[in-house]
UniProtKB/TrEMBL annotation:
Pfam families: PfkB. Signal peptide: none annotated. Keywords: ATP-binding, Kinase, Nucleotide-binding, Transferase. Residues 15-247, 302-347 form the Carbohydrate kinase PfkB domain. One of its GO terms (molecular function) is phosphofructokinase activity. Belongs to the carbohydrate kinase PfkB family. This is Carbohydrate kinase PfkB domain-containing protein. One of its GO terms (cellular component) is cytosol.
C-alpha cells in the first residue's frame, strides 16, 4: 500500500482569461477546480491505476470540504484530520496570448498540537512493507522538524520513507535517515550550505558527484540529485550513476527537471554493470534505461507531471514488477500528465497507450 502525506493540502484553481485589461473587468473563459498538494496528486494517480493508496493530511473549513468532495467524486481513499482552520487555495491564472502564468498561493491553516497528534496516530497505523511518500511544504503551527518525526515513526513500522521537500524540513529530515531523498541541484546546494554553514557552489558534474557522495554518507540509502536537462546523479551504497536525457527528445521540455532524466535516460553499458548490485529495483530502472517517446506529441505542460512520474514509478514497485516495468509506468504517467490542462493529471487511457510506446533497454 502506498500512503501519501500532504501537510498543506490545497484547492487548486486554474483560471483562463480571454484578455487582460487593467482598467476594466476581466472575464474568465474557463475555470477548473481540483484537489491539490503533491501527496494528494500521487494518490489520485495511483487510484486511477487501480493501485492501493490512501491520502493522509489535514483538511478544514469550506475549502477542506470541497477538497474531500472532489476526492470522493474520484473515489480516492483518504483518512484526514479535520482542523479548525481553513485549507488554502492556490490559484493559477493563464494569461492570454502566451503571456505566461500568474501563481497565487495562500499560506494555509495553522495546525495545533491536538490535530498533529491525531495525524501521528494515523501514520503509526501503517504496516510493514508500506510506502510513505512525504512531500511538499509545512503548514503554520507545525515545527520544521515534523518530517524527522514522521520518518522515525515510519521506520519503527517497517515503512519505507521517501522525502521530497526543501530548506530546513529537508535538513532536519535528513537526520532521521530516510530511505530516499530527492533534491534538485538548488535544493542540494542549500542543504549543503545549511550543513556546512558556509556558501557552497554546485556548478559542474564533479561538484554534483561530490554532493551526492557526501549526502549518501549521512545514512540515506538512496540519494538522487536532479540537474535539469543534464539529467540526474544517483548514488547508493557507494556506487554512482549518471543519467542524461536522450538528445532531441520531444518530451524534454515538458517533463519536470527532477525526473526528466530518470524517464528518458541512456546508460553506458560499462557504467551500468557497476551499479546493478547497488541500486534498488525501482531506481535502477530509472538509471539504466533508454526511453523512446519522441513520437508522443505534447499539447500542454501539465501541472503535477513530476508527481505523476513518482506515482507510476511507485505503483510498479508496489506490484513487485520488473525494473523495466517500473520505469515504463513512471514515464507513461508523467508524459500523460503533460497532455492535460491544469491539475487534471493523467488519464488512464493515455497512460496505457503511452505504456506500449515506451521502450526500455
Amino acid at each position: 500500500m502506498i500512503a501519501t502525506l500532504t501537510l498543506n493540502s490545497s484547492l487548486d484553481l486554474s483560471v483562463r482569461l480571454g484578455r487582460i485589461d487593467y482598467k476594466d473587468i476581466n472575464r474568465v473563459r474557463e475555470i477548473q477546480r481540483d484537489p491539490g498538494g503533491k501527496g494528494i496528486n500521487i494518490s489520485r494517480i495511483i487510484h486511477r491505476l487501480k493501485g492501493e493508496t490512501i491520502a493522509l493530511g489535514f483538511l478544514g473549513g469550506w475549502t477542506g470540504k470541497k477538497i474531500k468532495e472532489l476526492l470522493d467524486d474520484e473515489g480516492v481513499p483518504g483518512d484526514f484530520v479535520w482542523t479548525a482552520g481553513e485549507n488554502r487555495s492556490n490559484i493559477t491564472i493563464d494569461l492570454p496570448e502566451k503571456a505566461g502564468q500568474i501563481k497565487i498561493n495562500e499560506d494555509g491553516p495553522r495546525i495545533n498540537k491536538d490535530e498533529m497528534g491525531l495525524l501521528i496516530r494515523k501514520i503509526s497505523s501503517l504496516s510493514y512493507g508500506d510506502f510513505l511518500i512525504m512531500s511538499g511544504s509545512v503548514p503554520r503551527g507545525v515545527g520544521e522538524g515534523i518530517y524527522f518525526r514522521m520518518i522515525r515513526i515510519a521506520q519503527r513500522q517497517g515503512v519505507k520513507a521517501v522525502l521530497d521537500t526543501d530548506g530546513e524540513p529537508l535538513y532536519l529530515g535528513l537526520r532521521a535517515k530516510p530511505f530516499l531523498i530527492k533534491p534538485n541541484i538548488y535544493e542540494a546546494q542549500r542543504l549543503l550550505e545549511r550543513i556546512h554553514n558556509k556558501p557552497v557552489r554546485i556548478s559542474t558534474e564533479a561538484d554534483l558527484l561530490n554532493a551526492a557522495h557526501y549526502l549518501s554518507k549521512t545514512g540515506v540509502e538512496i540519494v538522487i540529485i536532479s540537474w535539469g536537462s543534464r539529467g540526474i546523479i544517483v548514488t547508493s551504497k557507494g556506487k554512482f550513476w549518471r543519467c542524461r536525457p536522450p538528445i532531441n527528445s520531444r518530451v524534454n521540455s515538458a517533463l519536470p527537471e527532477c525526473l526528466l532524466s530518470a524517464t528518458t535516460s541512456r546508460v553506458n553499458s560499462a557504467t551500468t554493470s557497476r551499479v546493478h548490485s547497488a541500486l534498488p529495483e525501482c531506481l535502477l530502472s530509472a538509471t539504466t534505461s533508454i526511453v523512446h517517446s519522441a513520437t508522443t506529441r505534447l499539447k500542454y505542460t501539465g501541472v503535477g507531471a513530476g508527481d505523476a512520474v513518482v506515482a507510476g514509478f511507485t505503483y510498479g514497485l508496489s506490484r513487485s514488477e520488473r525494473i523495466e516495468n517500473c520505469i515504463r509506468w513512471g514515464i507513461a504517467c508523467g508524459t500523460a500528465a503533460t497532455l492535460q490542462k491544469g491539475t487534471k493529471l493523467c488519464k488512464t487511457k493515455d497512460v496505457k497507450r503511452l505504456l506500449k510506446k515506451v521502450k526500455v533497454t
